[in-house]
Amino acid sequence: MADNFDNKVVLITGAAGGFGQLLAQKLGAAGAKLVLGDLDTEALQAQAETLRSAGTEVVTVRCDVSSEAEVSGLVNLAVETFGRLDIAVNNAGISGSFKALIDVEEDEYDLNLAVNAKGVFFGLKHQIRQMLTQGGGTVLNVASMAGLGAAPLLGAYCAAKHAVVGLTKTAAAEYADKNVRVNAICPFFSPTPMVTNVADQGTRDVLAKRCPMKRLGTPEEMVDVMLTLIDPKNTYMTGQTIAVDGGVSAF
To answer: Domain of life, per the record (predicted)?
Structure first.
């Protein structure tokens, strides 16, 4: 993989922390030119400074993925700065607190759909539109195991991630013959801030026991699969929702 991403223009949402931050670091080391968006502009700027100090070309902008204008603006920034968009990773997302379905408030449900589902829809819409003008490209959506099955106590999140899976398959089918690949990664729980902020150590231990490997996946394990899915040499895989779950989906 060392030079597969050399001079590739890669857009990442939710790039200031978690999977997005680690992915940006690995892509920068592999020679990619990065276009990064996040709501946390302070952390995003710190990330950019670290990347630039290592020789990576990177531009950043505040991006609330629930806003179509801001998602479109991130794509425009890629084109204005680097002339094209080769790869896009729709990584930004939220989780929400654990609660029974009947206790979920409407505003919680709406927020999950706005960020986790509509944010991916906006990304696909504007990223693919640009890719069609340049002869193709690759999109990776970060879904979840909650997009492939039930997610007790995470009903709103589950609904949104099922939407991500459906959007992934639909976009892949619509644009496969236009040289645009669209896939999704469906991780099990991983100790990124999005998880640790809502699940204490006891809860994470319970979740780990549900996994055949008896542990959560590390961010590095998830990001390594993300790199495989967006690798320019991976030219025939599209419409796939890849579970990275330590064996959970084997049952």
So the answer is: Bacteria
* Residue 175 annotated to the active site: no
Which residue in this structure is represented by tokens 């449900």?
Answer: 109
Arithmetic mean of pLDDT over the chain: 94
For residues 105 and 103, give the distance between their C-alpha atoms in angstroms, rounded to a whole number. 6
Tokens of 107: 């505003």
N- to C-terminal Cα distance for the chain? Answer: 32
DSSP 3-state of 166 = helix
Q: What is the pLDDT of residue 17?
A: 94
* Paired residues of 242 in beta bridges: 185
Least confident among 47-51, 73-77, 189-193, 235-239? 189-193
Answer for the pair 41, 244: CB distance below 8 angstroms, yes or no.
no
Residue 185, pLDDT above cutoff 90: yes
- Residue 187: closest CA among 159, 221, 156: 221
Residue 229 and residue 242 in contact, taking contact as beta carbons nearer than 8 Å: yes
pLDDT beyond 60 at 65: yes
Tell me the residue type at 220. Answer: E
Of 109, 157, 175, 236, which one is the catalytic site residue? 157
DSSP H or E stretch at residue 47: helix 41-53
CA 225 – CA 78 distance, rounded (Å): 24
Question: 110 CB contacts (<8 Å, ≥6 apart)?
Answer: none
Domains defined along the chain, listed by start: 9-244 (3.40.50.720)
What stretches of the chain adopt beta strand conformation (E)? Answer: 9-13, 33-38, 58-62, 87-90, 137-142, 180-187, 241-244
